[in-house]
Amino acid sequence: MCLGVPGNVVEVLDDRPDIAEVDVSGVRRAINIGLLEGQVVEPGDWVLVHLGFALSKIDQDEATAMLEFLAGVGQADADQLHAP
User: Which domains does the chain have, with CATH numbers?
Assistant: First the structure.
């Protein structure tokens, strides 16, 4: 199973236009945006990240929905671990 997580683009590196600094759940990571060739990627954009690569651009509503879903899955797992 593959899992992509939303990340918010903070900066596209001037000296490496194929690399962007992306905030993924509060952690900044260098993400390869080369697969988005031909698309403009700017700070504030949301991307779907998998294994250090941006697979696609997504809108903020989709990113928010995915983050809420992932938080819910995490809470369900935590609840299950603490169940008698």
Answer: 5-81 (2.30.30.140)
